[in-house]
Write a structure and sequence with these properties.
3 strands, three-stranded antiparallel sheet, 56% helix, alpha+beta, 2 helices, 109 residues, 27% strand
């Protein structure tokens, strides 16, 4: 009877050990996925800053309105959307206006 009880204890311990190892491996996998996602967001942030500075320096006519990156960042592309805000005043025949053109750089995969 003692040998059977000891075998049962070992089996229970093995099941607990396997469950523990499975949970540790799953947490490693989740961590790797999270690190990959954070790296992609970090790269996207860097590329967004780079493209926004390029847009500010050269304007959209020179760099275009959409494109893709090369080299290490070949999986990333960019697109510029322009939104205009205007304030208009005065009589319709001689109306005056002031407009602001805002560029939004969207990083899409």
């Amino acid at each position: 009877m003692n040998k059977g009880f000891l075998l049962f204890e070992v089996l229970i311990a093995m099941v607990i050990l396997v469950i523990g190892i499975t949970m540790v491996l799953k947490s490693f996998n989740t961590s790797i996925t999270t690190v990959k996602s954070l790296r992609e967001y970090s790269d996207a942030s860097y590329l967004l800053d780079e493209k926004a500075l390029e847009l500010e320096l050269y304007g959209p006519q020179k760099i275009g309105y959409e494109g893709s990156f090369e080299g290490r960042f070949s999986g990333f592309s960019w697109k510029i959307d322009a939104d205009s805000l205007s304030v208009i005043w005065g009589p319709q025949a001689s109306a005056k206006s002031l407009s602001v053109l805002t560029y939004v750089v969207n990083n899409a995969k």
